[in-house]
Design brief:
Nucleotidyltransferase, domain 5; Rossmann fold; 22 helices; alpha/beta; five-stranded mixed beta sheet
């Protein structure tokens, strides 16, 4: 980086946003401005609120490092980068989680463990290139040992003791006073609407009660410190750090020595050689340091090379359909006729893929028969279609929910609304498979209409490197070469609405997945003729269907069939087995 560059470091959490502005004058950085603003947890604040906070920060900068609590995924970082670029359009921007800025502030390039306890909590360790993490799962499922956790435990304590003994502890009075409330009913109503930050602010009252000798509150604090020690010891073990450097960060350690003492005392029992110290540099300085370390310009949205742009433009799914160029001029009847007429291209595409679909069924069947699993991976419409097909397998064929799984870029949220940028991270696709513990013997089918979705290609590359059988289902037969075992090309041609692959491409994709999954289930023996014999009778409709299946196979009346199912506790497979056995005898 150049001398004289102005670098902004921002660290946002549940209780505040801290920032510093530094300038490099020689071999060191000089702080030329710093301050604190309202909280900016990425998950708990709206984009408009974050922008309002950032607009209060210095604007004339060359670089910015913005690290917020809750900004944990690649999609989060991309969204935050995009937002920051609106505030600082000419700056080089790097974004991430407050864990990263904390580690940078405490350790720079060194090895060690950083224990952070503010409104939330987390423990992060590093040895060389290896990073290990514990905690930091947010206030609903995690944050054990953080301010929110301690406050909630204390509030539950006073209500539990009141229920059991009808006594109000002195601590209760202090809580009510701190909140300007009059009784328990008002406290409960307050808790029902209070957010994470409001609850965490009660930590001051909790520590005051512990300092005053309240044994039950002291126990809560000791338990919180013990949880952080447990995480620290686990991280040290994973990284094989026998005498780790342990740096403490966050408001609970900075403000309340009682917590620091409790942590040190408990850690010493199992890690006597650990070197525990309070981090001297603030996390916002770590954020600035990370921004200074960036060599390349981190843009707010993916930059495509000219070759990539040309490839995308050449994709069949991106071409204009000459039969629909006057779409807005058509009547409703003409629109319907056009859509129906275009469906013939879906049939043609599927007919042209018969050989590859046959091979796909055979491979999937063999895998599932030998204990493997089938994974669909996609983004946007392709991902939703994959998740839909996977979700239908358990009720239709009585299969376990993990036998066929759908993975969509952006996760559950992307099923019902667009998650911008989720498909652009190859690493996210690989991570998704890694988290599902995909292994040799499983099958991964990547679904991408264009054949070029980074999330899908990243997943396929990871699967291939792990020895997993891979397939690609695409509607662009001219897609760049992808190393897979089977490629199913569905050349449906340009869409009626240019680029809207939820139309013909989506229809062809849905039918192709129907063929593969249903074909595999048939070959695994889960049907008789064209009747389901493993369906789960979880509703009146399905019980009726099962009854008719039994009546058909046993050549008996409806009531007799129902009686057989009731006697077998509605286990259709068991009844069918008895019917087969009776025939063979």
């Amino acid at each position: 980086m150049k001398l004289g560059e102005r670098i902004l470091g921002v660290e946002g959490g549940g209780t505040k946003t801290a920032w510093c502005l530094v300038e490099r004058t020689d071999a060191t950085f000089g702080v030329i401005g710093q301050g604190k603003l309202p909280p900016s947890n990425f998950r708990l604040q709206t984009p408009d609120r974050l922008k309002a906070i950032f607009r209060e920060l210095p604007r004339e900068i060359d670089r910015a490092g913005v690290f917020l609590a809750g900004c944990g995924t690649a999609e989060d970082r991309q969204s935050l980068s995009r937002l920051c670029a609106e505030i600082w359009p000419n700056a080089r921007i790097i974004t991430g989680s407050d864990r990263e800025s904390g580690v940078a502030a405490a350790l720079e390039h060194g090895d060690g463990i950083v224990v952070s306890a503010g409104s939330g909590s987390s423990v992060t360790g590093r040895r060389g290139e290896r990073i290990e993490r514990a905690g930091g799962w947010g206030h609903i499922l995690g944050d054990t040992g953080g301010g929110y956790f301690l406050s909630i435990q204390a509030l539950r304590l006073i209500l539990r003791e009141y229920d059991l003994q009808r006594v109000e502890r002195p601590f209760t009075v202090k809580i009510l006073q701190a909140l300007s409330l009059n009784n328990f009913d008002e406290l409960v109503r307050w808790a029902q609407t209070a957010d994470k930050m409001e609850v965490a602010l009660l930590t001051r009252v909790v520590f005051e009660a512990a300092a005053g000798g309240d044994p039950r509150i002291t126990e809560i604090i000791e338990n919180g410190a013990q949880a952080l020690c447990d995480y620290t010891e686990t991280i040290a073990s994973r990284l094989h750090l026998l005498a780790p450097k342990v740096m403490l960060m966050g408001g609970l350690f900075y403000r309340d020595s009682i917590y620091t003492h409790a942590f040190r005392r408990r850690l010493k029992k199992n890690l006597p050689d650990a070197r525990v110290a309070i981090a001297e540099r603030a996390p916002e300085l770590g954020a600035a340091w990370l921004a200074a370390e960036v060599r390349d310009h981190v843009t707010f949205q993916p930059k495509l090379s000219e070759e990539q742009i040309d490839n995308l433009a050449a994709a069949l799914t991106e071409q204009r359909n000459p039969r629909s160029e006057n779409l807005e001029k058509l009547s409703a009847r003409e629109l319907v006729e056009l859509f129906v007429e275009e469906e013939k291209f879906v049939q043609d595409a599927l007919r042209g893929a018969i050989v590859d679909l046959t091979r796909a069924i055979e491979i999937v069947t063999e895998s599932l028969r030998n204990g493997g699993r089938l994974f669909y991976v996609g983004a946007g419409s392709s991902g939703r279609i994959g998740v839909l097909d996977a979700s239908e397998i358990p009720p239709t064929f009585g299969a376990s929910h993990d036998l066929v799984q759908g993975i969509i870029a952006g996760g559950m949220t992307a099923l019902y609304r667009s998650v911008e940028g989720a498909e652009d991270e190859e690493g996210a696709g690989a991570l998704a498979l890694n988290e599902r513990r995909v292994k040799d013997g499983d099958i991964v089918i990547g679904i991408t209409a264009s054949g070029r979705t980074p999330f899908v290609l990243g997943a396929l590359a990871w699967a291939k490197s792990a020895g997993v059988t891979t397939m690609l289902l695409t509607c662009n037969p001219h897609a760049s070469a992808v190393n897979v075992d089977v490629a199913v090309d569905l050349a449906v041609g340009p869409e009626i609405l240019t680029g809207s692959t939820r139309l013909k491409a989506g229809t062809a994709t849905k039918v192709a997945l129907n063929i593969i999954s249903t074909g595999a289930m048939v070959m695994l023996g889960k049907v008789r003729g064209n009747l389901m014999i493993d369906l789960r009778t979880t509703s009146a409709k399905l019980q009726d269907r099962a009854t008719r299946v039994v009546a058909e196979l046993a050549q008996c009346d409806y009531d007799s069939a129902r009686q057989q199912l009731e006697a077998a506790d509605w286990n259709l497979r068991e009844v069918v087995g008895k019917i087969d056995g009776g025939r063979s005898s």
